[in-house]
Amino acid sequence: MGGTLVRFLKSFNAFIEKWMALVTPLCLLTGVIFADQFSRMLFLVPYIFAFMTFCGSLGSKFSDIGKVVQHPLPLILSVLILHLLLPFLALGAGSLLFPQSPYIITGMVLEFVVPSAVVSTMWVSIYRGSTPFTLSLLLIDTLLAPFCVPFSLRLFVGSSVQVDASGMMKELLLMVGIPALVGMTLNQLTRGSVKQTLSPKLAPFGKIALILVVCANSSKVAPFIRHMTPQLFAVAGVILLLAAAGYALGWAVSAVLKQKRELVVSMSFGCGMRNISAGAVIAAAYFPAEVMFPVMIGTLFQQILAASFAQLLKKHYGLPGEDAC
Known about the structure:
Elements: H1 2-18, H2 20-33, H3 35-39, H4 45-57, H5 62-70, H6 73-97, H7 102-111, H8 120-126, H9 131-157, H10 165-189, H11 193-218, H12 222-225, H13 230-256, H14 261-272, H15 276-286, H16 289-317
Helix pairs in contact: 1-11, 2-11, 2-16, 4-8, 4-10, 4-11, 5-9, 6-7, 6-9, 6-13, 6-14, 7-9, 7-16, 9-10, 9-14, 13-14, 13-16, 14-16, 15-16
């Protein structure tokens, strides 16, 4: 019985990795259709994120983080893409296409000033990116978020936003900092053996966690999808293009810097994926409902784009598709 279950989980893990580009939009559709059911899971999302971060950090050592900091240019450029270049592009596109809708513009900018997404650790781990770089980017972005988000909004749209810095820090530490430290400590104490023993066993559960996160988060955008207007369709299209630009910019900059394949993968996902949940909290707390739509519509595209760029990266670099947590 035990052997059968192990084989099933291994097959399930391989299937999800192979068909991630198809599985992700199906999860998004499921989350929208069964929004009432999946919305009840939203309180679990931070804990599921924490588990995913733990999985992704099992192969990292504290010395790896030090190596990333010793060569900070890719890290610095990633932060600039996340918090300056993409928000500037969002502001330009919003001002050009929706000049009479300041709240739409604010929502577009907010979508692209929130921190990099914790779920990027899952994609980076699956496609053999640099987990130390990804964790470094997430940890630094986490520390900067309470300051970067209000400053960027004030800079780009003239909005002064009060952010619950301590609350945000606690949540992001729960989702990133603590599980990353636990995973890295286990790897350090076991001299790397935990990556070969525990990581493959947790891999299928990491995929299940990703599926649940996508379904739960997509339930938030269901009310907007059910009441679409021509302008909202246009906003959705612009958000799709800007979100894709994040992945492309991360890939392009790392390629120009002639980085190794692992760092190309990490910069692509790190610059492309956003903590939309954090943006939704800020939008709901400080802005009218109209600001929420550009932020939440990104939920529909983020995982689809991640799966699409993952396939492009795999095709270009021949990434392995072995078990990864």
